[in-house]
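Q: Got a minute? One more chain.
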Amino acid sequence: MEWKYGLDGKDGYVDYETATAFMEQRVADIQAGKAPECIWFLEHPPLYTAGTSAKREDLLTPDRFPVYDVGRGGQYTYHGPGQRIAYVMLNLKKRNPDVRWFVAHLEEWVKNALEEFNVVGETREGRVGIWVDRGNGYEDKIAAIGVRLRKWVTFHGISINVEPDLSHFGGIVPCGIGDEKLGVTSLVDLGLPVTMHDLDMALKSTFEASFDPEAS
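A: Always. Here it is, folded:
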């Protein structure tokens, strides 16, 4: 397993085209047995991505940031500074060739990492991602999940809000959900002084247990 950070291990925003090109090449190399599995931690400049189920009416301000049509599942998602992206390139043939297993364990991984900061992340039927209960029927999304597989090798992955500009989510209906009681939050918005490095360490320390092939 290779843990990759930014571009050549350096901080800075990675543009979406560069990230996509890297994932395409790494997936091909994993399939060919030329490269190890990889988890890539990075941040993007502000942008929106449209998954295969995206509805154009959910893009509320189309000229605000660049919009990329991508091959992952899901609808519209915002990416930008202060949000940890983890692109996950795993060979499920060697783990468990089951898409539902993979998504469930991505969710488990995010929840386990958030638990390191005493944040209870939860999944909801019919709603993709990880949610935080704010009380009185209000819930905020703290992490998004969008995946793609090619010959059982995965790419795309997860995004977790550390300290992004939450107003940037206002340009879309996130994941097609417009309920006024459903919002977006971040670790810092929850009052936690968590840094990107802190979250990276939590993700690394909880990965193996979260993706145990023997786990249900």
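A: The longest helix spans residues 99-115.
Q: Perfect, thanks.
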